[in-house]
Design a protein that fits this description.
1 helix, seven-stranded mixed sheet, mainly beta
């Protein structure tokens, strides 16, 4: 059974006025077309997969490091310094930024 962030059964794709929320598996979440990370995600302690596709700049707040993420995929505009910051934030995470493994 596929669940959303609140733990309730969810459809494969949910569209809000701000972004599209896809659910690729029981253990993963995918957010497409976001400016910022949805607040609900901070209630989680761990995830096996998270994909976030930003409309513009990739913005990862320090609070995100409280979630243990096995695989993290990010898409959006980012500088080399921004990539380095994210790599340091998630040293034990399989990280992919704009299709490149880090």
């Amino acid at each position: 059974m596929v669940k959303n962030l609140s733990g309730k059964k969810a459809s494969k794709v949910a569209v809000s006025k701000n972004f599209i929320h896809c659910l690729p598996s029981e253990n993963g979440e995918s957010f497409i077309g976001v400016d910022t990370i949805p607040e609900d995600i901070y209630s989680l302690q761990k995830m096996s997969f998270l994909h976030i596709s930003f409309l513009n700049d990739i913005i990862i707040p320090a609070e995100q490091t409280k979630i243990k993420i096995t695989n993290l995929e990010l898409n959006g505009h980012i500088t080399w310094g921004g990539e380095e910051r994210i790599k340091k934030m998630f040293p034990d995470t399989k990280l992919m930024i704009n299709g490149d493994k880090k």
